[in-house]
Specification:
Blueprint: H1 2-18, H2 27-40, H3 60-71, H4 77-102, H5 104-121, H6 131-134, H7 136-150, H8 156-170, H9 175-192, H10 201-224, H11 229-239, H12 247-259, H13 281-304, H14 307-328, H15 342-361, H16 371-394, H17 406-419, E1 427-431, H18 437-449, E2 454-456, H19 461-464, E3 476-482, E4 496-501, E5 504-509, H20 511-517
Parallel strand pairs: 1-2, 1-3
Antiparallel strand pairs: 3-5, 4-5
Helix pairs in contact: 1-4, 1-16, 2-3, 2-18, 3-4, 4-5, 4-7, 5-15, 5-16, 7-8, 7-9, 7-14, 7-15, 8-9, 8-10, 9-14, 12-13, 12-14, 12-15, 13-14, 13-15, 14-15, 17-18
């Protein structure tokens, strides 16, 4: 467990030391900062925004990050610390469940799988607070914790419920995979242990209590608003039913994630699948061989009555099918970050394959004193790998993968100066075009940190959240315009230029004029 946690602990220490370096966010990180600040005041009911006009189901990730954010002085560097800490928790739970359910050998195999994933993804990405990254390890944890529950580990049941909730609330696209994993591990566990239900009362009670607590915010939102986010989600998925992306596109997106054969899982997440090279026969062969080997492992585990190994194998197979099916049915363009959670399934696939390989090799491995050098040698290799990944964490001296935008801070200072006496009154922010929204989100986050009450025009409420709806009492407007081919749109008459950051210009004008200037995303 300590070996698996080592790179994450090192990265956590580095992130704590460097938290002040990430002081001005933009884009998605800025929006996450706005939502986390709301959660720090117990005012957030929903999860991260979606480009389709709804929010992911729940705010568990924001309430987790809120204390770290406050302790970091309301700076976005606190989100990176929160992310590394949560990843550390998932790794510890995963390895601890494997050890408790199947012994030290399974724990070392889980450690090898986690370290291999960290090496492939790249250590700096492990502190990326963007929600597609936040769900990878929880998805893997659902499978292992569910299998451990089947093996009789009672504390794994509420832990599996929390990890499943974290994944679904943070990225609704994980729902199919997570529910399949729960169905093939937790449900058989409840049936297997039905005769000893008295000893499970505490675990079941804790699971139900945590479920009510974690799902209460989205239920409150559903009651307070019409149609409510949950109903909006249902309508969206009903309207998009029947979507079917070409199978070759699905495979070239999902196959490297399921088999962990890509050496740049993080770098590809923002690209359109059209930019991906076609999947090679070798990659397909690796994936097919892995799936076949895991299916063989499931058969052996069932014959041996090994519930933990059987649960891991079934979760790997079911999760892989779920990842392919949900990717094929994804609405809109097929973007890699929609299905980044497939890498979490890939962790389970490799773990199940290693468990099967270890089971096959067990009769041929020497016992007693002869076996000890082999065990120490394998452990030594993993320690070296962990140390190397820790060094990579130490060398992660910048937040290049998260993006720091000091120009947003300068723009906020200029805006605060231009607002003058209006700084204590509500301000309406209008994003005139889609291109400058990252700078607009960063400006809103920085102005809020300085005590300015920011609202946004109606077309952009989906990005910022319900609390940012205009109420008609705004006394000043901020119009954010984006350059296209080096040219900025002409602002309305009477607008006063505040400042410029990258492709974005900010103009001050009366709130009513700003509202009329809104053209939407």
């Amino acid at each position: 467990m300590l070996v698996a946690a080592l790179p994450f602990v090192v990265l956590l220490v580095v992130s704590l030391i460097q938290a002040h370096q990430l002081s001005h966010a933009a884009g998605d990180l800025a929006v996450l900062e706005l939502r986390t600040r709301a959660a720090s005041h117990f005012g957030e009911l929903l999860g991260p925004y979606s480009r389709y006009g709804w929010d992911h189901p729940g705010p568990v990730v924001f309430y987790w990050a809120a204390p770290f954010y406050v302790l970091a002085g309301d700076r976005p560097g606190g989100l990176a610390v929160a992310t590394v800490t949560s990843n550390l928790v998932w790794v510890v739970l995963l390895v601890a469940a494997a050890r408790r359910a199947a012994g030290a050998r399974a724990a070392w195999l889980a450690t090898a799988t986690v370290l291999g994933f960290a090496a492939i993804l790249g250590v700096p990405w492990l502190r990326q607070a963007w929600n597609p990254f936040q769900v990878i390890l929880p998805v893997a944890a659902v499978a292992v914790l569910g299998a451990a529950t089947w093996a009789g580990v009672r504390w794994a049941l509420p832990a599996a419920a929390v990890s499943a909730t974290w994944a679904i609330q943070t990225h609704v696209g994980t729902a199919a995979v997570v529910l399949i994993m729960v169905a093939v591990t937790v449900l058989p566990a409840l049936w297997t242990h039905r005769r000893s239900w008295r000893s499970w009362r505490g675990s079941i009670g804790a699971t139900l209590a945590l479920g009510v607590l974690l799902w209460l915010p989205p239920l409150i939102d559903q009651v307070q608003h019409r149609p409510g986010n949950l109903r909006t989600l249902v309508r969206f998925f009903r309207a998009s039913a029947g979507t079917s992306h070409p199978f070759h596109d699905v495979l070239r997106l999902v196959a490297p994630q399921l088999s962990l054969t890509s050496t740049d899982l993080g770098g590809h997440l923002g690209s359109n699948v059209a930019h991906f090279r076609p999947i090679s026969p070798g990659e397909l062969l690796v994936l097919a061989a892995l799936q076949a080997f895991v299916a063989f492992g499931a058969w052996r585990a069932k014959a041996a009555g090994d519930h933990f190994r059987l649960g891991c194998c079934l979760a790997a197979l079911g999760g892989s099918l779920g990842a392919v099916a949900s990717t094929r049915a994804a609405a809109g363009d097929l973007l890699p970050y929609f299905t980044s959670f497939s890498s979490g399934v890939g962790i389970v696939v490799w773990f199940a394959a290693l468990l099967t390989a270890a089971d096959l090799a067990a009769p041929h491995v020497p016992t007693g004193a002869t076996r000890r050098p082999l065990s120490w040698g394998a452990a030594g290799v993993l320690v070296v790998v962990a140390l190397l990944l820790g060094v990579a964490g130490v060398r992660a001296r910048s937040y290049a993968h998260i993006s720091n935008h000091p120009d947003v801070g300068r723009l906020a200072t200029a805006t605060e100066r231009a607002l003058g006496s209006d700084v204590d009154s509500p301000v309406l922010m209008v994003v005139g075009r889609n291109r400058p929204w990252p700078q607009a989100a960063g400006l809103a986050a920085e102005l809020e940190r300085r005590g300015v009450d920011v609202r946004t025009a109606k077309p952009w409420v989906f990005l910022f959240g319900h609390d940012y709806r205009p109420r008609g009492d705004e006394v000043a407007g901020l119009l954010v315009l984006g350059a296209h081919d080096g040219h900025f749109p002409k602002p309305p008459p009477g607008a006063v230029l505040v400042g410029q950051a990258g492709i974005a210009q900010v103009w001050k004008l009366p709130a009513g004029t700003a509202a009329r200037a809104a053209v939407g995303p």
